[in-house]
Automatic annotation (TrEMBL):
PANTHER family: ISOCHORISMATASE-LIKE DOMAIN-CONTAINING PROTEIN, PEROXYUREIDOACRYLATE/UREIDOACRYLATE AMIDOHYDROLASE-RELATED. This is Isochorismatase family protein. Keywords: Hydrolase. It comes from Dietzia timorensis. It comes from the Bacteria. One of its GO terms (molecular function) is hydrolase activity. SUPFAM superfamilies: Isochorismatase-like hydrolases. Residues 7-181 form the Isochorismatase-like domain. Pfam families: Isochorismatase.
Length: 205
């Protein structure tokens, strides 16, 4: 197995997810944040590229409004942000859709993106799915991401069920899912994370 050339992609670690209607419910947001910061520190120490994205909507929007407190990055991410990071804003789920991230990654010979941040049920899965046709392998850190409770006309699903189901789904095809500790060990050993596939997941192999 070849050594992956990784980049860490930080998705929307913004104040909106720590207070208000979009507050992350599972895993507990402070635990997720701690693991996100651990991944950032490990990536920085290993010298792998880092990209950070922030969601933004026009002034007056109910969430992520430009200039609002909720739209700001969490201060611990802002404090770590370095000049060599790629930073951008977006208005849709995938970090690839409105940016030149793919070109930036290719310029650095990256073939594997590691996703941390929020939300599992929107921007994380949206990014993972759109990475596949671009030719990038994906890793998702299960304890450095997070979901919200969902309730609409189709049902009522608690955040724990949302997050855990999506981790299984992602690992079945779109990504290799691991904890931050497992990923940090793989980073240090320069090894790949092992995911599953649809056939193995369907049969429980």
């Amino acid at each position: 197995m070849t050594t992956p050339n990784r980049a860490l992609v930080i998705i929307d670690v913004q104040q909106e997810y720590f207070d208000g209607p979009l507050a992350i419910a599972h895993p507990p947001r402070e635990e997720s944040l701690s693991n996100i910061l651990a991944a950032v520190d490990a990536a920085t120490e290993a010298g792998i590229p880092i990209a950070s994205f922030a969601h933004i909507y026009p002034e007056g929007a109910p969430v992520f409004a430009e200039g609002s407190e909720g739209q700001k990055l969490h201060p611990e991410i802002a404090r770590r942000e370095a000049g060599e990071w790629k930073t951008a804003t977006k208005t849709v789920a995938s970090v690839f859709s409105e940016s030149d991230l793919a070109e930036w990654l290719r310029s650095k010979n990256v073939d594997t993106v590691t996703l941390v941040g929020f939300m599992t049920n929107n921007c994380v899965i949206g990014t993972a799915v759109t990475a596949e046709p671009l030719g990038f392998s994906v890793e998702v850190l299960s304890d450095a991401t997070g979901a919200i409770n969902l309730k609409n006309a189709q049902g009522d699903v608690p955040a724990k069920a949302v997050h855990e189901t999506l981790m299984v789904l992602l690992n079945s095809n779109f990504a290799s899912v691991a904890t931050t500790a497992e990923w940090t060990a793989a980073l240090g050993n320069e090894t790949s994370l092992e995911g599953s596939n649809l056939v193995a997941s369907a049969t429980g192999a």
